[in-house]
Automatic annotation (TrEMBL), chain A:
An example Gene Ontology molecular-function term: single-stranded DNA binding
Protein name as catalogued: DNA-directed RNA polymerase III subunit RPC3
Domain spans labelled RNA polymerase III Rpc82 C -terminal: 154-348
Location of the RNA polymerase III subunit RPC82-related helix-turn-helix domain: 16-75
UniProtKB/TrEMBL annotation, chain B:
GO cellular component, one term: nucleoplasm
Taxonomic lineage: Eukaryota, Metazoa, Echinodermata, Eleutherozoa, Asterozoa
Record function comment: DNA-dependent RNA polymerase catalyzes the transcription of DNA into RNA using the four ribonucleoside triphosphates as substrates. Specific peripheric component of RNA polymerase III which synthesizes small RNAs, such as 5S rRNA and tRNAs.
Keywords: DNA-directed RNA polymerase, Nucleus, Transcription
One Pfam assignment: RNA_pol_Rpc34
Cellular compartments annotated: Nucleus
Protein name: DNA-directed RNA polymerase III subunit RPC6
Family listed: Belongs to the eukaryotic RPC34/RPC39 RNA polymerase subunit family.
A biological process term (GO) from this entry: transcription by RNA polymerase III
Amino acid sequence: MFATELDYRMSVCQIHLCSLLIKEHFGDIVEKVCTHLIQNGAKPLRVAAQETGLKIDQVRKALCVLVQHNIASFGLHKRGFVEYAASVEQVLLLVRYPRYIYCAKTLYGDAGELIVEEILQHGQMRMSTVVGRVTQRLSEGGQSVTNDHVKGKMEDLINTHFLQRVPAPPPDNNKAAFPELTISERDLYRVPASIEVTRGESDTSKRKRSTEDSDPQSSSKRLKIDSEEHAADEGILWHLNFDRFHKYLLDHEIVQAVSRRIDWNAAEVVRTMLRISELSKGLEDKTSHPISLNDTMRNLPKENNMKFGVVEQYFKLLSDDQTSIVTKVGETGGGSYTLDFQNACKALVVSTIESVVQERFGSKSFRIFKTLLLKKYLEQKQVEEFALIPAKEAKELLYKMFSEHFVTMQEIPRTPDHAPSRTFFLFTVDVSQVSRMLLERCYKSLANVISRRAFETKENKRLIEKSQRVEAIAASLQSHGADQSQTAEVEDMITPLEKNQLEKYRSKMSKLEQSELQVDSTIFTLGNFLRLESDS
Amino acid sequence: MAADNIVIKQEVTDAMNLEERILEMCKEETKGVADVYIKQQLPHIDAQQRVKAINRLLSLGKIDLVKQGSELLYRLKDPSSISKVKGVDNQERLVYQIIEEAGNKGIWIRDIRLRSNLLLTQLNKILKTLESRNLIKAVKSVGASKRKVYMLFNLEPDRSVTGGAWYSDQDFESEFVEVLNQQCYKFLQQKADLAADSKLDPILRRNQSYGSSEDVWKFIRELGISKVELAVEDIETILNTLIYDGKVEMTVSLRAGSTSSGTPGQVKLYRAIRPLTEPAGIMRVPCGVCPVFNQCYDGGTISPSTCIYMKEWMDY
């Protein structure tokens, strides 16, 4: 279960993007170590230090950060030494962090948002720390919340599998070359009973051993915890269950698609079906369990008072639809239906690719592309006839798409000598090939946007630092009770011209950051499809 | 010759009768008949029809126009005399028959040669004479622009030769197709909007949004945007392009057709749809449409930090 074995699909673009992301989030040294591991595969600590030319201590700390954030993993080489490897896929998730946070906000409100944010920032955390910090931050923001409220939210997140426990080292293998991290299936989403939460991190006065958790875990080897601190849930760390978030995001995409194809009520039906199957399906499952009409009816939200007959009709509409996201499997329970995730992913990806073709090549090319998609294999002449586009124009558009690898060609020779005059040239669209190509483009675009952002920041470095200094001075003046005129004087140190430029810089930044998320959403759609397809 | 302004039309039995009557008259009066005489003999026929029939007979070489004094007379042509003068009657007839057999699909000159076993030069000559007498005509085929096919002068060329309604003189009328494409979509879109606004059951609502190809055909015909007569099949081709545009979906319904015509039991139904997703996120970045995307590298001549498209996009 080593990361490098999984990442056989790494590409130059991916690695470049990874190093940019790591640099942005964790700085230069970590970037160097991580990129080295990604490029060269698993390495023992000493070799990594030697090859990167860094001090062994620096590499150790860098690895520590990477392990903490679930990016690096360690394992035992068959010759008996420990080696470290980094996972590309995990690094690429760094872009998606804002989406996870937003996701938690929509589901569990401000508290959920902050919980996920805190955990993402730290990689993995103890429950007591998270709850303490979040409560503090919320009350700083002027909201009066109790620890219990935040803890409840966190338990909700755990119960819905959005958070899961970090595998812990077994209690008594201090002698082993490295700690084997394990966690039982049962404990993965189980909140230890009665955790007294301390307020703030430094406040350790309230300490209480949890009755349930008095097993040797609390005394086991600690990874990165201050020796002073002894919370009750010592050693029980939580991190995000990324797969669960991905499942949620995918569900959301499917619901959106259905609402665009049929209407909101149909989307509500699909959403209910998804909720029923929520915890039972893995991200790799291609279809959900059969869900009966009656079950769906019972679980529909109360405010949506659709009649039985209407819901029945919606089911019929859904199963009639050409995307075949919902298929009928039987008559039990008023008709049972399954959700086909593979079809859904395919429909989403095809629609994404279509929009790319539409935007990049124009609507005439799109017509040709779609003709090929629907008719599979066509000769050039047939393309012209079906799409009703004059021969000359169609040829040009088709070849343009062919040269950019959106369309592929199959040669079928009539004679064994492969003479062009006696060969059929059939054009076709290979969806998975186009998706892979687009995915690469996305990675490169994302890297471009990030490096542009770094460039803009570098260009405006002096200005940004100045404004930060000014703000700091103004703030400190204000806290020392200085009057308005004094702070205004300090603030005037930034000229209108500079102010203007700052404004411009900020709008550029937000535009770039926003587009990063948008590119990532395309990556998400394409990635889902390719993963499901490679399984089959 | 009067044949120059001849009007081609599908032969009607009436016209045939008329021609035969005139021929008979000419046979009786070997010297030739005057126009006034024909008029007297056929009082119920109006002038236009008469002129048409005479013109046709002239063009076919059945009768001759002779001037006697100040009067014009129609006289029966002696078939044997022509053949004697030309001396190629049999070959001409053979070629004529071959072309006649080909019908409105026409026949290629090479095929005529193969079937008639004539030399190319000879055949060319024959074809030229036949053409000059307006017995046959050459039509350019849309499929191969250089290939000429021959068919009888009075025939309307087949769709496969002219390319159907979308071609005029071998040129594809893409604008016409575009206009029809838009109008068909508008029709279906309106239908879908109407259905979406109605307070019906979901299934009924969907069924309301469907329009059969005949409905669309009627709508287009009533709009009167087309100069040529369009068939339902033509409209279906247009509707197919809408499917390829991703704007419309098609299902085949098995209920008995809404109109009496057409094959019973199968109706092609069309419905306007929206795309499944929003435009892809990658297309909102300049890189998505960048023409030099593949040449772009950090530190290269084209690089993300110096990208002008990025700059314009951010300043926008």
